[in-house]
Write a structure and sequence with these properties.
Layout lengths: L1 H17 L37 E14 L3 E16 L4 E17 L5 E6 L3 E10 L6 E11 L10 E12 L3 E13 L6 E16 L2 E12 L4 E15 L2 E10 L6 E10 L1
Antiparallel strand pairs: 1-2, 1-13, 2-3, 3-4, 3-5, 5-6, 6-7, 7-8, 8-9, 9-10, 10-11, 11-12, 12-13
Length: 272
C-alpha cells in the first residue's frame, strides 16, 4: 500500500501544477494577487518585470527638456507627454506602445547663426517585454525587450529605428536594488539622414529614502560604432509612491561630454 501511494503522489502533485490557474489578457490576474507595481522609469535602465496579465500601466514624461550640441548645431527640444502604454499579455509577456504627444524643437546652426523651429507629434514605438527569469520572485530577474520606432514625427527628421534591450535586476541586502542593462540600437545620425549602430550599458542603484520615496542614482555610457565616440552620463531621480497604483518622479540625465545630451524631466506612472 505504501509503495502504491509513493507512486501516485508525484503524479498527484504534477496534476496540481498543471491545473494551476494561468491568466491572460482576457482573463486578468485578480487584484489581490497582483505583484508590486514596477516601472520602467525614471532611470534609463528598464525594469525586467512585466505588467500582470490583463492589466494596463501608463507611464509618461509629463514634461522633458533636452539640450544637445554637435559639431554643427545646437538643439533644444521640449517634449510633452512622452507616453508608454504597457499591456499585460500573459504571465511573462507585455506589449508596450510608446507615442510622443507633442514636441517642439529649436535648432541653431553654429556657423551661420540661423535658427529653425518645428513642432507637432512625435514617433510611434512598439516594444515587447519578455521576462525570462524572476518575474514572480527571487533575487535576480532578466528580460528581453526588442523594439521598433516608426518615423511618424512632425517636429524632427526621423527614420525607422530599432534595437534590443536586455535589462537585469538584483535584489541586494538592506533593500537595495541594483539594475544593469545592455542595449544595441540602430539609430539615425543627429545631423544627417544616415544611420549608425550604438551600444549602451547602464548601471543603476536604488533605495528607499523614507517610506514611499525612493532615490535612484545611475551611470551609463553609449558608444557610436560609426564615429567611435563614447558619451558618458550621470543620472539622478526621485520617485514617490502616491498610492499603490500611482507614482510621480523627477530627475535629470546629465551628459558629461560637451556633445552629450542633457535631459531634465518630470513624469508619472499609473496602473489599472
Amino acid at each position: 500500500m505504501l509503495f502504491i501511494f509513493a507512486l501516485i503522489l508525484p503524479f498527484k502533485g504534477l496534476g496540481q501544477q498543471v491545473a494551476k490557474k494561468k491568466y491572460s489578457l482576457f482573463e486578468p490576474v485578480p487584484r489581490t494577487q497582483m505583484r508590486e507595481m514596477e516601472t520602467d522609469r525614471p532611470d534609463l535602465t528598464e525594469s525586467p518585470y512585466t505588467v500582470d496579465a490583463g492589466h494596463f500601466q501608463f507611464e509618461t514624461d509629463l514634461v522633458r527638456t533636452v539640450r544637445e550640441t554637435s559639431e554643427s548645431q545646437e538643439t533644444h527640444t521640449s517634449l510633452i507627454n512622452q507616453m508608454n502604454l504597457k499591456i499585460g499579455i500573459s504571465g511573462s509577456t507585455a506589449l508596450q506602445i510608446g507615442f510622443q504627444t507633442y514636441g517642439r524643437q529649436n535648432e541653431k546652426e553654429l556657423e551661420t547663426g540661423s535658427k529653425t523651429m518645428t513642432q507637432g507629434h512625435g514617433d510611434l514605438t512598439l516594444r515587447i517585454k519578455q521576462n525570462l527569469i524572476g518575474n514572480n520572485g527571487g533575487h535576480f530577474a532578466l528580460a528581453l525587450l526588442p523594439y521598433v520606432k516608426f518615423p511618424t514625427s512632425k517636429y524632427e527628421d526621423s527614420r525607422l529605428e530599432g534595437g534590443l534591450l536586455v535589462p537585469m535586476q538584483y535584489k541586494l541586502p538592506g533593500e537595495f536594488n541594483l539594475g544593469f542593462q545592455v542595449e544595441v540600437d540602430r539609430l539615425k545620425d543627429q545631423d544627417q539622414p544616415s544611420m549608425h549602430t550604438e551600444f549602451v550599458q547602464t548601471l543603476t542603484i536604488s533605495h528607499s529614502i523614507v517610506e514611499g520615496l525612493d532615490g535612484m542614482a545611475e551611470t551609463y555610457y553609449t558608444y557610436d560604432f560609426k564615429t567611435h565616440q563614447f558619451s558618458n552620463y550621470i543620472n539622478a531621480a526621485l520617485q514617490i509612491e502616491v498610492s499603490k497604483d500611482f507614482k510621480l518622479d523627477a530627475g535629470l540625465n546629465f551628459g558629461i561630454q560637451h556633445t552629450a545630451a542633457k535631459h531634465y524631466f518630470f513624469g508619472a506612472s499609473y496602473r489599472l
